[in-house]
Design a protein that fits this description.
The protein is mostly helical and 94 residues long. It contains three helices and two strands. Strands 1-2 form a two-stranded antiparallel sheet. The longest helix is centred in the first third of the chain and has 23 residues. The radius of gyration is 16 Å and the shape is flat.
Length: 94
């Protein structure tokens, strides 16, 4: 058995990694069903694909959560709402 004692494996941590894994599997299935996904030019003024928009939304969400932890003592559940809105905006506008 692998020694995983180096990381605090709590339920929220496990759910986070399972959710990221599920998103990647879902995007892979979407790409297999509809290859290419019609790259488009959004507000950033260069061509992006679904994978690009997923990467930008995940990276931005990480920065939102880090900024949230730095700036406020409010629960991260509120940051999750901001991240979800950011995710939708990225997929609609970028």
């Amino acid at each position: 058995m692998i020694d995983l004692s180096w990381m605090a494996w709590t339920w929220p941590t496990a759910i986070f990694f399972v959710a990221i894994f599920a998103i990647l599997i879902g995007m892979g299935a979407w790409e297999a069903a509809s290859p290419g996904g019609n790259p488009r030019i959004g507000i950033l003024r260069f061509e992006t694909t679904r994978g690009d928009r997923l990467f930008v939304s995940l990276l931005g969400s990480a920065l939102i959560c880090l900024g949230w932890l730095w700036a406020t003592d409010l629960s991260l559940w509120y940051a999750l709402i901001v991240c979800a809105a950011f995710f939708l905006l990225v997929f609609r506008l970028v």
